[in-house]
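Q: I have 325 residues here and want to know how they pack in 3D. Can you give me a structure?
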Amino acid sequence: MDKNEIKIESNEEVKTKKAASKKNDANNTKKSWKEVFIDNYNGTSKEAKELAPFLKSTYKGDVYIPWAVMERLTYMCDEDAQFNVIQNENGGFVFTDKVENHQVNIQKDVKISETNAPMFAHFVKVELNFLGKNFLEIYPIQEQDYSAARIFNQNLVNRAIQRAKAKLASRATGLALKLYEGSDLQFDEAKKDIKPDIPEVKNTAPTKEEVVVEQKMTAPIKEEVVVEQNNTVEKEPVKETEPVVEAKNVDNIPQEVIDLISIIKTTEESKIIKVLQKVNLAVMKKYNFALSPNDTERELANKISKFPNVTQFKKTIENFLNETL
């Protein structure tokens, strides 16, 4: 080729070079596993901010995140993440350990009976490759109430696999890991109930459409009183009496509720998210909702109005905020 001759690249070559350049740029700007984990754990990442609306509670009041949400958020953090359910040597998904329980009944130095009872422990194994790191979760097959399953079927196996995925995703990504730090549902007997200083909430506050009505007079209206006169039954109308009614609509938001909403909305997002993570676990267990800075002011007002002592709750939030400074 002459030195002065210019090489003309094909469209395919240009596309290939652009794709390689784009991939290199992405790799250079891609966060490390540690950076992703810390952002997720502290609740500052985009994925972590999506968790609050998906908080669920079991019939026992334990809080959890559905496995499908955890799997989706894992792929959002790392599009190359891979879950793998490990198979046993027979191609199945259940791993079983067997232990012989040997018992001897001796009375007055005489062996009365001797038994050998086999005991089984059933597990599933799931692994995850996330941002170049490999994680393994060995999860027991359990009944709905988290007790060990003596006899299992396909439903229990599938449930164990999905629970294992959720916990594995949390361990690898840092998302919702604080739920396991407070208590781990698979170790139900050993769990400890951590309760922040949250005031008791009585679900008696009216909704937006409800009006609190106090009736000071309860005289019958347009009712008829039966009167006996000379063995003849007659009906005598009673004079109508208008009850005195006082109405209070929840649109009149108390000042302390407005103040708390202002704190949630105006505080630096990363700080308020950390604080709300501390209280939302207890709030969700008791009242089946969570507070989020992404809530609208109306949504926050409806939730906060459920608390009978908003001032105390506000002080709790302020104390937690002071700790984060």
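Q: Anything worth noting?
A: The radius of gyration is 32 Å. Residues 255-324 form one domain.
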